[in-house]
């Protein structure tokens, strides 16, 4: 019997008013490789049934109160301890939906810490709804990192072999320059290199590092962070055996990424790295968090309240998130 048969992938339900349940249900019907694992949707069974009926998705998903009572022969199930009956308001922002999103994440963290869950795939949440419900995190990445005790982590999106990690994540642009430090960049490069080698099985991953300023500072004329912070951080990383290069002008670097020789990129801020990544692979890109003790992936988009309930949500990115989680689990 394959060792992967004993591994569990948890899918947190996300915002029940958005497209998270829809893309989850659709993806489960399109990902046959998951039959080698146990897949648990964490969230209210009533919400799952609502979306199954609304979208007319016929999928066997028995309810369980704990992973220990997994049904014989079941590939997927709904893990619902409390049997809540949430008020679903399709396409609307609500603190009640934020509470359910946060509870699902907290339960996934608890199960992962207990060694009962080996990968977490997070459906989209509304950050605003999470905040309204009292979960004050910039995003799911930071929520999971704190709960799982990961002091050093890196948000990385990938589409095919194009992988972009971020030095800073969900920060207002005006705060980015002050947040960039030599220590931060070195820590990001360490966790990125470690996960690329141990989980992605890349023998010596080459990582390109962008500058912060236009034209990588133009020799100090457009800012000196490249000279005073980023270049010294790259050199320190290289001294530690990390194959980092740069700093490069981001526009030129990403403009020719198909011809580059790098396995991954480290961008200084959110839009600098994710605009080129999503232009290349939007709808099929996957968000991966490096540095966590368990595998975590998610789709590359949000709750899409504007199309929730219309049956229009494309599940491709969720399919890829599940596939990547399964691939990494099978190879580790």
Question: What does it look like?
Answer:
- With 332 residues, this protein is of the alpha/beta class.
- The chain folds into 2 domains: 191 residues, 3-Layer(aba) Sandwich (Isopropylmalate Dehydrogenase), CATH 3.40.718.10; 139 residues, 3-Layer(aba) Sandwich (Isopropylmalate Dehydrogenase).
- It is built from 11 helices and 12 strands.
- Strands 3-4-2-1-5-12-11-6-7-10-8-9 form a 12-stranded mixed β-sheet, sandwiched between helices.
- It is globular.
- The model has no long low-confidence stretch (mean pLDDT 94).
**Mind describing the biggest β-sheet?**
12 strands, mixed
Which regions contain 5 or more consecutive residues with pLDDT less than 50?
none
Number of strands: 12
Multimeric state: single chain
Which CATH-level-2 architecture of the largest domain? 3-Layer(aba) Sandwich
Order of helices and strands: EHEHEEHEHHEEHHEHEHEHEEH
The percent range for helix content is 25-40%
Text of the CATH class of the largest domain: Alpha Beta
Strand order of the largest sheet: 3-4-2-1-5-12-11-6-7-10-8-9
Mean pLDDT: 94
Rg, rounded, reads 20 Å
Q: DSSP strand (E) fraction?
A: 15-25%
CATH superfamily of the largest domain: Isopropylmalate Dehydrogenase
């Amino acid at each position: 019997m394959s060792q992967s048969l004993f591994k569990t992938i948890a899918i947190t339900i996300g915002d029940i008013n958005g497209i998270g349940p829809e893309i989850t249900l659709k993806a489960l019907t399109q990902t046959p490789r998951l039959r080698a694992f146990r897949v648990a949707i964490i969230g209210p069974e009533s919400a799952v049934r609502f979306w199954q009926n609304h979208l007319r998705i016929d999928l066997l998903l028995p309810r369980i109160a704990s992973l220990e009572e997994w049904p014989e022969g079941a590939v997927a199930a709904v893990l619902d301890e409390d049997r809540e009956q949430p008020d679903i308001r399709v396409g609307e922002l609500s603190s009640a939906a934020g509470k359910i999103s946060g509870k699902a994440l907290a339960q996934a963290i608890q199960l992962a810490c207990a060694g009962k869950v080996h990968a977490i795939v997070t459906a989209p949440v509304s950050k605003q709804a999470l905040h309204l419900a009292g979960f004050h995190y910039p995003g799911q990445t930071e929520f999971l990192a704190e709960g799982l005790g990961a002091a050093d982590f890196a948000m990385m999106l990938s589409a095919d072999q194009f992988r972009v990690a971020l030095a800073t994540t969900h920060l207002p642009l005006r705060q980015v320059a002050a947040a960039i430090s030599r220590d931060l960049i070195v820590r990001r490069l360490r966790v990125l290199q470690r996960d690329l080698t141990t989980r992605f099985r890349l023998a010596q991953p080459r990582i390109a590092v962008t500058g912060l300023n236009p034209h990588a500072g133009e020799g100090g004329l457009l800012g000196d962070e490249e000279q005073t912070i980023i270049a010294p951080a790259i050199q320190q990383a290289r001294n530690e055996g990390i194959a980092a290069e740069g700093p490069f002008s981001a526009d030129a670097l990403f403009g020719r990424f198909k011809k580059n020789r790098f396995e991954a990129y480290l961008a200084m801020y959110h839009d600098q790295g994710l605009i080129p990544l999503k232009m290349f692979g939007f709808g099929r890109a996957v968000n991966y968090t490096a540095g966590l003790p368990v595998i975590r992936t998610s789709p590359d988009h949000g709750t899409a309240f504007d199309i929730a309930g219309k049956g229009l949500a494309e599940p491709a990115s969720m399919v890829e998130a599940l596939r990547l989680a399964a691939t990494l689990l099978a190879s580790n």
